[in-house]
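Team,

Forwarding the record for the chain on the shared tracking sheet. I've put the sequence and predicted structure together so nobody has to dig through attachments.
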Amino acid sequence: MSSHTAETKLGLIGKLLIEGEMICETGLHVGAGKGSLDLGGADNPVVKDAFGRPYVPGSTLRGKLRSLLEQSAGLVSPGDLVYLSRRRGQEVRIHQSNEPGDEICLLFGRNPGRMERVSGDALDTTLATPARFTAYDAPLDLESITPQMRENLDDELTEVKSENAIDRVTCQANARTLERVPAGARFRVRFVLDVLCAEDRELLAKVVEGLRLLEDDSLGGGGSRGNGRVRFENWKLTWRGRGFYAAGEPEAALLEGAATTADLQGAVLSGGLPEQLA
C-alpha cells in the first residue's frame, strides 16, 4: 500500500519515460479476432498495423501487467474484484477499491461511482484517481526478422503453428492453426509514468515488479501451450520535468543500457532513481 492519502494534492511534477526492447523467446500470438481469411490461411491471425506489420497493442501490455500485479498483491479474490463488463461469455473482472493508497488504482486509474462486486455488496467509490501509467503500442523491429528466418516463415514476418484439440470421448483430433510472430523477434516498448505528487515516486518499483513477473509468465494467447514467453533488455529511463514542457528545459537521462530487467530493478530499489524524480 502506498503512502498516498485522500488529502494528497496532485499536480504534474514530470514524466518518466521507460523504454526498452521486448524479445520473443517463443512464438507470440496477440490475436486480431476472426475475420475473412484467405484460403489456407491461419484460423487465428495476429494483429497487424496498416502496413501489414505485427505489433503488440499497448492495451495488451497494460492489461497483462495489471493482471499480474493484482495477483502478486493478492487482490483477485471475489470480494476484491468488480465487474467491468457483465456481457454473457465476455465478463471482465478487475480489482477496484476505495483505498487512497491502493497502488493498482493509482497506477491504472479509477472512476467514482457504484460498481457491482463479484461477491458481496456493491462498491461505492468516492475517489477519482487519474491513471499514472501509460503503455504504448510496441512496433516490431523489422531488422530482428533475419533473412534466414524469412526463408522458413509461412508469411514474410510470421509463422503458422498447427495444433490439435483431442476429443476425450472419440479421441478425434480437431486441427487448428495459429499465426505467431516467431521467436527472436524484437519489439520496441515504451511506457510513461506520470509523477503527480512526491508519493508517486514509489510507484516505479511496482511497474518494474510487473515487468519481472511478465518475464516468467506469458503474453498474448496460448501461453499455457508454449506461446508468448518474452524477456526485456536494453532499458533506458528518461526524466522530463514540468520545466521540459513549460520552458523547454533539457530532459535528464537517469539510466541507459540496463541490460536486463533485474538490472533495472536493482537500480530502482537502490533508492537513487526515485529521489531524482523531482
